[in-house]
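notes to self, project folder thing:

trying the whole complex as one job this time. last attempt i did each chain seperately and stitching them together was a nightmare. three parts in total, labels are on each line so i dont mix them up again. if this works i'll redo the older ones the same way
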Amino acid sequence: MPLSPVATHSSESADREYVWTLNFGPQHPATHTTLRLVLTLDGEKVLKAVPYIGYLHSGFEKLAEHLDFNQYVTIADRMNYLSPLANEIAWHHSVEKLLGIELTPRCRYLRTILAELMRLHDHLLNLGTTALDLGGFTAFLYFFQQREHIYDIVELASGQRFHTSYTRVGGVLFDVNTDWVNRVRKFIREFPPVYEEVDRLLTKNRIFVDRTQGIGYLSREDAINLSATGPVARASGVERDLRRDDPYLAYSELDFDVICSRGGDCYARYLVRMQEMLESLKILEQAIENIPSGPVNIAVDSDMVLPPKPAVYRSIEGLIQHFEMVMPNRSHDVPREQVYAATESPNGELGFYIVGNDESRAWRARTRPPSFIHFAMFPHMIRDHQLSDVVAVLGSLNIIAAELDR
Amino acid sequence: MVSLQELQDQFGSEIQERVFRDNRFIDVPAEQLLQLLSGLKTQFSFDMLVDITAVDWLDYEGATDRFSVVYLLLNVDSGERLTVRTAVNLPDPALPSVCSLWMGADWMEREVYDMFGISFTEHPDLRRILMPEEFSAFPLRKDYPLKGRGERHNFPVITRSEG
Amino acid sequence: MAVGLPENIFITRLDAAANWARSNSLWPMPFATACCGIELMATAASRHDLARFGAEVMRFSPRQCDLLIVAGRVVMKMLPVLQRIWLQMPEPKWCISMGACACSGGVFDTYAVVQGVDRFIPVDMYVPGCPPRPEQLLAAVIDMQEKVRRTGTIMGREFVSRDTSSGPSPFDLQEQHRIEDSRLIQLGGFSAAATSTVEGDA
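result (full assembly):
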């Protein structure tokens, strides 16, 4: 049955005196971050949900107009803080499309590995906290242990465990070494047993299944009409994955499946995320074994990339090159054009619409945030469900407030 | 793939095309916008509205209009993308709402209204979405300073003895 | 051990006994808004385990807590909520400002972000970092315990003496000028006062 638009100010239930209003958020443990819902309830049945957002609006897009392409990566990091590197990769993917930069093979593989690690990172926390909200604490602890291993891996590569600011226009901050590669291999070996354990804990758990199956149904037509992407859309039967349909980085050379489901409910979204983790592991395995050698950044004389740090500190040429690159009006040769490029972030299609000006900062950089678009569907999905289903649906949509509000 | 000729035949010859990298842009006057978008949805099956955004062109060299509003469309089955751009100007920037075509446009249009002050006629619920209701400026306009006009510090201070 | 007392009897000051109890059972109220909230979660989760320091009882109702941890940036739409939560917490209470954004606005020097929560609520402990590592937060909790032990009194006299906000001065001069300018040119005022001036003139 297709969903009808929800009129936010309708008075359809105003004459029913027994309905009551519940304020949910903006500081509530199950929202994990800051979002607010005003629920109109009939007993425990949700008649209407009106979301109020903006409790974390920090002016990301305004900042993008004031920082250059390399500086803004620190801000893009803080957008979806479950998978910081995925935002960096998406941002520089768009910038590199605007500038017309072709990455080196090693960089493409390295970024692919990092992007897939971030997909695991995101799904681990999302599934863990969803289970936590639905009453299962153990899965959260098991999964968080694995997240700590991923933290260690990105820390080894970039020096920071959380907001790495690792990618640069035309490459990355610095190359990884064999230690790092072995660390990733070790993670790939150690992850499946934990995964299986959590799978046994949750997938056929009576309570978990009862609380998610048939909850928050989204049909394929509605998913498309409401612009859903990523795991949410794929759980509703939209067979679309930018990694396969619009390949970027090294995805065209790797073998993986796109996980879809026809279920459309919270349980289907849980299953899709669980299966996607296995696919990510498959991609990681192939990419880490086939990572090409060679330079990780494009050539310095292309005037697009920052010179390596040892050259900056030890030679006058390197210092001059670095200086030229950080001067706003002397660095990149930016076309006065507009470009939209998107990547498949863990949460869905994360794209940037960039307007180029003559200088190396964007005139306008619009983020296409999957959380924002998914949260808009929430009032449609929660109607006529129970109050306790609110956390199940919120968890399955994976709403990240910083990405929601920017 | 939808050709420019088809669109021009159907929706008027003012429609222009521009290609940059793999992006295709269709520029359309604001009057034909709704007609073009509904045509693209129903006849050319661009069934997903990926995003709506706007750009402020104040002081941009060579720009003739103040704002452009950008609609990113996607055909889910074929994967074809199309970007439709239109221009609006002060003092009363307004466009028809596309909520009747794509339900997902609801919040996107509210955000453009909130950030740029471009209103969408016949939108079911056009309110501010990210900024507080009392806020009266439009922060992503180029004439609004990055650090704001002091709104961020207009709050009472709670001291220890009050707490 | 004092002479003449039976076994298992200690003599101490009431203040010290209260501080000992309070400092070892801090109940945090996690006001987690952004990235730091995830690190706060990591601090409480498997590897770092905040429970080792007696502060794992995260209560999401401010009325049951005595330690407010502001984790993440606070924007102007959220600040009234933060203030209300602070007022709802019973005395004695303390506040940890976690991360660069909560301490000073961090990288977000923009129109919407409050440049440090200490301008509007009292803060006892600042944790630098963007976001701070879980170890840093653990250190802050330990320092907090030390501070409670050292300065606490059973009647909360240490709070009464401080009647000004404990952070840096709430306004920098530039900010003050911007506020004055905005009222003069009457563009986009946020406070009720500024809005009413605009209406009055129109």
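what i see at first glance: Chain A has a mean pLDDT of 87.
need to look closer tmrw
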